[in-house]
Amino acid sequence: MFPALETELKQQTLPDPYEDFMYHHLQYYGYFKGPTCLSSTVHRQIEAVNRDSLMLSSPLLKSRQLLHDDLGEVNARPREPRDLFAFFSSSEPLQAPRWPIECEVIKENIHHIEWVPPQPEYFYQPTGNEKLPEIVGEEKGTVVYQLDSVPSEDSYFTSSRVGGKRGIIKELAVTLQGPEDNTLLFESRFESGNLQKAVRVNTYEYELTLRTDLYTNKHTQWFYFRVQNTRKDVTYRFTIVNLLKPKSLYTIGMKPLMYSQLDASTHSIGWRREGDEIRYYRNNTDDGQQPFYCLTWTIQFPHDQDTCFFAHFYPYTYTDLQCFLLSVANSPVQSQFCKLRTLCRSLAGNTIYLLTITNPARTPQEAAAKKAVVLTARVHPGESNGSWIMKGFLDFILSNSPDAQLLRDIFIFKVVPMLNPDGVIVGNYRCSLAGRDLNRHYKTILKESFPCIWHTRNMIKRLLEEREVLLYCDFHGHSRKNNIFLYGCNNNDRKFWLHERVFPLMLSKNAPDKFSFHSCNFKVQKCKEGTGRVVMWRMGILNSYTMESTFGGSTLGNKRDTHFTPEDLKSLGYHVCDTLLDFCDPDRTKFMQCLAELKELLQQEIHKKFNELGQDMDLEGSWSDISLSDIESSTSGSDSSLSDGLPVHLLNTADELNGRDKGTSLGPSKMTTLILTKNKERMQREKPGFTVSCSPKRNTNPSQEPAPDTKPNWSRNRYPATKGGRTTAVVYPSLHIYTYP
């Protein structure tokens, strides 16, 4: 019909060599579920050219990367990224966790139900008569469970595979001699499990040894293991013998968690706080290196022949996260405003997910005007508290609540729900498979050793180049203090004096029985320079925080002396959203009210400090010039600085470089540069991030807003928003959400 046009179109439909290669390459590795090859598609396009229906409106005349309206001329918008990953679809299984090849993994799938205790779970009240068992060890006891191959500080991570170690999985538990044999059968070779050895020292008494973080000799805190062959109405005693922290919440009433499978299946009862005669004390054995501490407790199992689990805190695994993200990706509603992408891959090859949550903007100008909020969790794998707060935040922000819709209208949320999936999978407490605490390496240039940290910082850096980041918060757990609180960074700009404390104070007013403002600290210590909150603060984010949630419970208000449940922590995620709206209310009454209260509190603190020093000063007119860091104590945090430094697999290289010139000591920056140069040929070539597919599947419960707790009598005058006038979110381009590293 149009000969000249037909010739031109035939030339345009010839396969692009690069595209053809990439399709074959991605399909070969299983990342693209498209046609067998491009040729069939191209042939169909060429045949279409020969039909009379070929007109200027043919899709062959349009860019493959832009979507047009029916007229083909206006409202062009970018096409959605191709669905490269097939594991997030309703017809495909989840991506199986990848383990270091040294780790044995049982084939059973461990799953626990969620449950809210009908009554508050109070702290244990010591009687003073608790027994302190003497540690006898395997010399006088019988080893009933022991991991054979555990990577130690003398080795380093080399490779991983789904299912961990190859070969037949050994039966590590003892063989029962008959139905009368009442020996407990232990197991921990499952996701997030941690137990290295169990020694039976009496009929119903066991000494337990925890596994250190892989490729280290430190950080024994997290435990999670299974016992079988139980007997009811019998008092058992368990004693963990190799804990490393001299102080613990177990000394002030915290109880371990227990889960009964029979109770779960018959009565829908989940994790609950159990234990009696709880004591935390120093181990009487001395290996000449570092002191160990013991945790002992007694328990009576509810059933005979039950399968029970014990844990330091409510587990939240990598598989739990993937199941949740799958439900979001398959929701036709939530997937419209929550884009799920791959931030990077971990050392073991597990996917680190990045969620971008925002309602599509009506114009590019509206999209550009949105401020960003960045939230992360589980950089420390044993702090599952962070995942439960993150779960509560995501449940609310993805709901159909009017406040959630308003937040999505005015903010872009960048969320990394699990920064350290490798550590979570293997049951580490603090480190990644590099054998280092990732929350001390946010300034790193070792992209291949600390990929999740490097890519997170790079993502935030790029985000700052395009818009203001109003708030950054990293969710953690705390092992020595009750309640929930924030660590922030004192601002030196007098224009914004005390502004970094407003959000925490507002949060304490919105969650008065959980959040303690008096436990917050804003001092920037030298040993914390590599943490996420300090690095992001120095990058220009004024409101940069670490949220610490206790492993124990609350000492405040109506929840005083009770343990936190997952529902309590999830409600904190809701309160973060609620406080964001208060913090950004155009009516600045609440903001200024908090600022005035902060000035009064600070003045009282300064007077208190001078009184403690025995000095009497007239601070009128000059008290606000005093450095805030001078009146604050340190954050009394962790020993995680012990896991700072180069990743373990580079230590030999560092020793070689230092040994070249005995008279020269290389600084950290120069050392890192030399190592990068030396290892340049061994570095893998960076690959582009892949897109996660989102297959539609209706979510039956999109709104899960918890009931708010008692709150101050603040007016709820928020952003004026005319929801009824907004058109369907799908039709508007959201240009900003495709800028991923």
TrEMBL record:
Q: Where in the cell is it found?
A: Cytoplasm, Cytoskeleton, Cilium basal body; Cytoplasm, Cytoskeleton, Microtubule organizing center, Centrosome, Centriole; Cytoplasm, Cytosol
Under catalytic activity, the entry for this protein gives: (L-glutamyl)(n+1)-gamma-L-glutamyl-L-glutamyl-[protein] + H2O = (L-glutamyl)(n)-gamma-L-glutamyl-L-glutamyl-[protein] + L-glutamate
Source organism superkingdom: Eukaryota
Q: Per its UniProt record, what Gene3D superfamilies does this chain match?
A: 2.60.40.3120, Zn peptidases (3.40.630.10)
| Pfam families with a match to the protein in the record | Pepdidase_M14_N, Peptidase_M14
What family does the entry list? Belongs to the peptidase M14 family.
- What does the record give as the active site? E548
Single GO molecular function? zinc ion binding
Gene Ontology CC annotation, any one: cytosol
> What is the originating organism of this protein?
Balaenoptera musculus
List the residue ranges of the region (Disordered).
680-725
Ranges of residues in domain Peptidase M14: 314-584
Sequence ranges of Polar residues compositional bias: 692-704
Q: Does the keyword Cytoplasm apply?
A: yes
Q: Which cofactors must be present for this protein to function?
A: Zn(2+)
Q: What is its main location?
A: cytoplasm
Q: What is this protein called?
A: Cytosolic carboxypeptidase 2
GO BP annotations listed: proteolysis
